[in-house]
Specification:
The protein has about 500 residues and is of the alpha/beta class. It is about 40% helix and about 15% strand. The chain has one domain (about 1-15, about 50-510): 3-Layer(aba) Sandwich (Rossmann fold). The strands form 3 sheets. A 10-stranded mixed β-sheet has the order 1-2-3-4-6-5-7-8-11-12, sandwiched between helices. The protein has a two-stranded antiparallel sheet with strand order 9-10. Helix 1 (about 5-15) packs parallel to helix 12, helix 11 (about 285-295) runs antiparallel to helix 12 and helix 11 crosses helix 14.
Length: about 500
């Protein structure tokens, strides 16, 4: 597979010495009650929580001029927690204030996906999902070390290449990885930018806030962070919400190809079962592979206008580009509904819709594809467990693990706890959300996680894809769950209102 697109596919996926809790808790126990309340004097714009002083700030978002008002506090930690006198790094910590006059003392924490996304940068897209939570609690946004404005491991020269070869050029993969490593190593040791080390950062933030219990909300890779934090610091957790969850025992990347293929088959089956859709597109799954094979044999150069600037562009469209676009289309119900039409247009040599979307995705994933933090996570936590999967070779994505194994032969590895990949077990209240057609974290993952969580409940949104917390009634259900901590008796009847989005027969929408 073309390396540039393979890396972008991997980036969309997403994927130690413990801090002794007993010592820290005894040290800060006296601060827990008093430090958790906001102290704000008349006329002051800022406020303090625990030992942290928050002041007004603005959160930015990629490809947009708009900002979100928040409160930020400086926070610094050792890069290597076992050498506290060594290099220190600044973390971006922000707080979205509750609308309540007297908010609850236990905040909500957003744990972003990727690996490589930054909580402060995705907040603008996640804000609607958290509206019911903000009625009673503050929301904390901590850019995980290596992301956003938390000492990012971002390579100016992307890990991607710009060729259009159908096969992976491993010499280029190695060269780009070494160049990225050389760049980030000027002021960072990448082996300390793993999930396990990031947990210590979050616990340090909690202690600085006065040691309140946390309500964790993890999305995609963030669900790994949430489960690991729950295991390491169980007394620090009040509740957990896992949206599009990855089981601890799952190796990131091992099932990307088969999960996408299964989701596409299920989505396209809806079209073949609908007379108007079947009449327009026949079998979209078979059509997709015909288009893939045609592009692999003879990739065309396509003239189109950029979707953001409307400027004329010319780019090749190969099978790997198609795979990347299809995978990202499959993430949500609305974009998945466009796939049968886009595939049919491609078979008719109208490639502009596909190239326009590929252009958007290339830009949106630029930071993830150049993220050294992503490699720090995958190389430490998963790469040595990845094995070749010849059964994936004929599938749309192929065997992505080849890329990671090649990169991780060069990238430094941190320490992975012996129990890192063991299933989570806890009696804490946990709500697990999933989408029926999730192409990355299918519903069976949610059911597997729930086995070790007796006070958990799984809610699967019919017809939906990846990251469902913001859909329909789910924000309201999450709000109720965090308020009451009773997943089993949560009135979730509204989940029955979810349904797949009918496939578009034209770009104006589905057939009536």
């Amino acid at each position: 597979m073309h390396k540039r697109n393979a890396l972008k596919l991997a980036a969309a996926g997403l994927i130690t010495v413990l801090l002794g809790y007993a010592g820290w808790s005894s040290r800060f126990a006296s601060q827990a009650e008093a430090g958790a309340a906001i102290v704000q004097k008349p006329g002051e714009r800022g406020f303090s929580i625990g030992t942290l002083a928050f002041s007004p700030c603005e959160l930015t978002q990629r490809n947009a001029a708009t900002t979100t008002a928040a409160f930020c506090a400086p926070f610094q930690v050792p890069e290597n927690w076992d050498r506290p006198d060594g290099r220190r790094i600044d973390l971006k910590l922000a707080l979205i204030r509750s609308r309540a006059a007297a908010p609850e003392l236990d905040p909500v924490v957003l744990l972003a996906g990727g690996p490589g996304q930054a909580a402060t940068q995705v907040w603008s897209h996640a804000a609607g999902s958290f509206a019911p939570l903000l009625e009673h609690r503050h929301v904390l946004l901590l850019d995980q070390r290596g992301t956003g404005d938390s000492h990012p491991l971002y390579c100016k020269q992307s890990l991607d290449d710009d060729t259009t070869a159908a096969d992976i050029d491993f010499d280029t993969v190695h060269a780009r990885t070494r160049a990225c490593l050389d760049e980030v190593s000027r002021d960072a040791d990448p082996s300390h930018y793993t999930t396990t080390v990031a947990l210590r950062d979050l616990e340090a933030v909690r202690q600085a806030l006065g040691a309140p219990r946390l309500n964790l909300v993890g999305v995609s890779y963030g669900t790994r962070v949430a489960q690991q934090y729950l295991r390491r610091y169980p007394d620090s957790v009040r509740s957990v919400v896992l949206d599009s969850a990855v089981p601890n025992e799952q190796v990131l990347g091992a099932e990307f190809a088969i999960n996408l293929d299964d989701a596409l088959k299920a989505q396209f089956a809806l079209c073949t079962q609908t007379p108007r859709c079947a009449s327009a597109f026949g079998d979209p799954y078979a059509s997709l592979y015909r288009l893939r094979d045609a592009l692999a044999a003879n990739p065309p150069t396509v003239e189109f206008r950029g979707p953001r600037d409307a400027l004329p562009r010319s780019k090749p469209l190969d099978a790997a580009t198609l795979a990347g676009v299809v995978r990202l289309f499959a993430y949500t119900a609305d974009t998945a509904a466009l796939l049968p039409l886009a595939i049919e247009r491609g078979l008719q040599h109208d490639y502009a819709p596909l190239l326009g979307q590929a252009d958007l995705l290339t830009d949106d994933l630029a930071e993830l594809s150049g993220s050294g933090m992503q490699l720090s996570v995958i190389c430490t936590e998963d790469a040595d467990l990845l094995v070749e999967r010849p059964q994936d070779a004929p599938l749309l994505l192929g065997d992505l693990s080849k890329i990671w194994r090649a990169q991780c032969a060069i990238w430094p590895r941190g320490n992975r706890p012996a129990d890192f990949h063991t299933p989570i077990e806890s009696d804490k209240p946990v709500l697990i959300l999933g989408g029926e057609f999730d192409p990355v974290t299918p519903p069976r993952y949610a059911q597997a996680i729930a086995k070790g969580l007796p006070n958990s409940r799984v809610l699967i949104a019919r017809g939906q894809g990846h990251h469902v917390m913001g859909s329909g009634c789910l924000p309201r259900l999450v709000g109720r769950f965090v308020a009451n901590l009773d997943a089993r008796h949560l009135d979730a009847g509204c989940i029955a209102d979810f349904a797949p989005t009918p496939a578009f027969t034209t770009f104006n929408g589905a057939a009536p």
